[in-house]
């Protein structure tokens, strides 16, 4: 019987059924004893108690802007304010009520993140001490978050497991007057934490290989996994296309990940409709994301934006009801720096649904390379409007292509993403990290 360690999860993204990270954590940690899991976080999304019931919500006492930036923010906010912790200059400006132009000036001059300070408060220290953790697992985060993690490790002397989901170390602190200093701090935190980690994890095999060379130690790859046996019953029963057919995107929308590619797809659908090929394009995303980019995405009556589905059963029914599922990936250099090694959490769910998948994005990214190498999606890997429209039409009209892609995706999810195997290996890695510390303490 597995002896699960008491695991402290320190993270900017907690357990939920909306965001990619929240879904991935829920699937990876399912089955971990609830009384042996404590999550310390500053995630603005509502958390789920399906996997974890013990949470500590970080506030400004633990992580906040360094002075004088905190005082400037309070000046714009007034005497109110809350415990929410801003992670970058953009969120500070939007929360503080600054106008868009002022916000952009601040970001351009000062960089993508203001300096932060962090403190292990008596309240947080007491919560962690009462929990008595054996292991700290984290995806790291801002300089403030990494400083807090170091404070916790200094106080509690427990082994560390780090898990990278995107290549944010390559993308962060690249512009602005404060960038150079903040980047030096970031790199110092990273080197220290990676060097002292009991285990280092990555989101993809490509990231594991690249990070192994970058940081001089081994990384294991773990990404989202799903219960294939549970959800394959909800898969598409027929590959016949509706009239009009529906293209569906499900997930978050970020400027440095998929926004521009998603806009390309909206424009392609609009042109196809105007040229006599009726098609629907649905975008299911958290409401804040949809509202933020509605003007750029809803460019035609055929393009609709709906709220994210938070119920798992309804989510899989929705995937199977569509005719084609879309994975968009930006092509620009800044986005590539961030998402080059990323793997969307939605990918296994897309695969098990049986709905044919279309991937549109840069061939320099791991997710596009994975789709092409394994054949679980039809790939359009150049930013060309005509090629994109042709790819969309092919996915709706070519029955052999639809069948081949669907069958390959179903086989791939069983082979590489079944939670029965992936979750067991993930749990074993975490247990091994904690057991190694116990063995060293006894020797």
List the helices and strands and how they pair.
Elements: E1 7-11, H1 20-29, E2 37-41, E3 54-57, E4 63-65, H2 69-77, H3 89-96, H4 100-110, E5 116-118, H5 122-131, E6 135-138, H6 143-156, E7 160-164, H7 168-171, H8 179-196, E8 199-202, H9 205-215, E9 220-221, H10 228-231, E10 246-250, H11 259-274, E11 280-285, H12 287-297, E12 303-307, H13 312-321, E13 324-328, H14 333-339, H15 347-353, E14 357-360, H16 366-374, E15 378-380, H17 385-397, H18 399-416, H19 419-442
Parallel strand pairs: 1-2, 1-6, 2-3, 6-7, 7-8, 8-9, 10-11, 10-13, 11-12, 13-14, 14-15
Antiparallel strand pairs: 4-5
Characterise this structure.
- Residues 79-99 have low confidence and may be disordered.
- The two termini are 24 Å apart.
- The longest helix has 24 residues, at 419-442.
- The chain has helices at residues 20-29, 69-77, 89-96, 100-110, 122-131, 143-156, 168-171, 179-196, 205-215, 228-231, 259-274, 287-297, 312-321, 333-339, 347-353, 366-374, 385-397, 399-416, 419-442; strands at 7-11, 37-41, 54-57, 63-65, 116-118, 135-138, 160-164, 199-202, 220-221, 246-250, 280-285, 303-307, 324-328, 357-360, 378-380.
- It is 48% helix and 14% strand.
- The strands form 3 sheets. A 7-stranded parallel sheet has the order 3-2-1-6-7-8-9, with helices on both faces. A 6-stranded parallel sheet has the order 12-11-10-13-14-15, sandwiched between helices.
- The protein is an alpha/beta fold.
- The protein has 19 helices and 15 strands.
- The chain folds into 2 domains: 7-61 and 116-225 and 419-442, Rossmann fold (3-Layer(aba) Sandwich), CATH 3.40.50.2000; 228-416, Rossmann fold (3-Layer(aba) Sandwich), CATH 3.40.50.2000.
